[in-house]
Design goal:
This protein is of the alpha+beta class. The protein contains five helices and seven strands. A seven-stranded mixed β-sheet has the order 1-2-7-6-5-4-3. A hairpin with a 3-residue loop joins β5 and β6. α3 (98-111) packs parallel to α5 and α4 packs antiparallel against α5. The radius of gyration is 19 Å and the shape is globular.
Length: 224
């Protein structure tokens, strides 16, 4: 009977982890423009259509690469793996077009397999990174952590709903992401309404670096 109960409890936990996620937003203070959303299901999707008639092929991105930066460009690890041409290595400061941006993102994904996806446009940048964690402080798991900023520098960090069961520090991560975003957008970020291709590339880079540092810290903590 005890074995049956243990098996039932195990399947119940697996079912919970696989269940649909729900949203719960928590404000970190009035006027800061920064909040943490815990338990938000991140489904980075959307591709260029309509005005963007040209697309990048083999550059690591299946999303459109038309000149209109307002149309989201979405690149995933699957896109990069399926690409037939090598991604273009280019400095963020030198990114000028959507094609440049697609190649820049693909190159980053080639060098970091934990960089799961990037969703970027003239009004936002969202970076999803695979982060190790300890469920109940004992079971090693991997969670998708997404940091998003809009053109005004408002930052959101999202994790699976069950993140509260793992040993994670979302508050510190949010602070670090916001610091990186501020270095790119500057003191007058609140007045910004659009992001250039170069700014998008710079934001992808600083957010990825911040998420990678958090993931490394989590990995080191799990081995102690």
């Amino acid at each position: 009977m005890t074995k049956i109960k243990l098996i039932f409890a195990t399947f119940s936990l697996v079912g919970l982890l696989a269940a649909p996620v729900f949203a719960l937003s928590v404000s970190t203070g009035a006027g800061t423009g920064v909040h943490i959303a815990t338990g938000v299901g991140v489904n980075v999707s959307g591709s260029a259509s309509g005005a963007a008639s040209s697309t990048t092929s083999g550059n690591g991105g299946s999303a459109g690469a038309g000149a209109d930066l307002s149309i989201p460009l979405v690149v995933t690890q699957a896109d990069v793996t399926a690409g037939t041409n090598a991604p273009v290595k280019i400095a963020a400061d030198n990114v000028r077009t959507k094609v440049d941006l697609s190649g820049f993102i693909a190159a980053h994904m080639k060098s970091d397999a934990n960089l799961a996806s990037v969703d970027t446009a003239s009004d936002h940048v969202a970076v999803t990174y695979k982060e190790p964690a300890k469920l109940f402080g004992a079971f090693a798991v991997s969670m998708d952590t997404t940091a998003t900023t809009d053109a005004s520098g408002n930052v959101t960090v999202t994790r699976p709903w069950w993140a509260f069961l793992a040993s994670t520090d979302t508050a510190s991560l949010q602070t670090n992401v916001r610091s990186g975003v501020d270095t790119v957008l500057g003191a007058n970020a609140s007045a910004n309404t659009t992001l250039s291709a170069s700014q998008q590339a710079q934001l992808v880079s600083v957010i990825e670096t911040t998420l990678a540092a958090a993931a490394n810290a989590s990995a080191n903590a799990s081995t102690q």
